[in-house]
Give the backbone structure.
Amino acid sequence: MYKSNRLVTENRLIILYLMYQMDMPLSWEHLYNFAVNDYMDYFEFQTYITEMEQNGIIETNKEDTITYYSLTDDGEKTVNTFSKLIPESKRKSIITYVRKNRGVIKKEYAVSANYFMYDEDEYIVKCSFIEDDVTLMELNITVVTKEMAKQVKKNWKQNVSSIYNTILQSLLNDDSNAKVANDIEVIDKEG
């Protein structure tokens, strides 16, 4: 059945308003889980996302196999200008959803690892760990096979806390500094 122009506009604005309130890139899956069933069906959702991207209201950024969506400047202007067309009850529902789910979604982005081929037999794995919008650690590791790169990526994501703590303790440990200084002194005496 044909939807009225007002409902189509409202549904597009609901997606944009969610993105505006979240204030971070969202995956297709996050947008889908929010919008489909409660506000629109799958086909409407997919159509709105595609049209808004083509019209420059939202933009995409792809990391590995995941596409993230964010508002463009025009998208923000659209939300600011037209958000009052969304019924107040739905705006409140979106804000409640954002408050409930923002922390969980943000944690998903806090740990990232991606790899790319640098040379014929070299892959670089870029790992990062972010907390409260502050980068706690960034690490670039060079490995020789794609399989090794995948393993580093997997282990980073699964063990980031222990890796971070181990590296930090090693860097802050006075014993290791004393040992390094002692090793340098031994080399100097031998040289």
The radius of gyration is 23 Å.
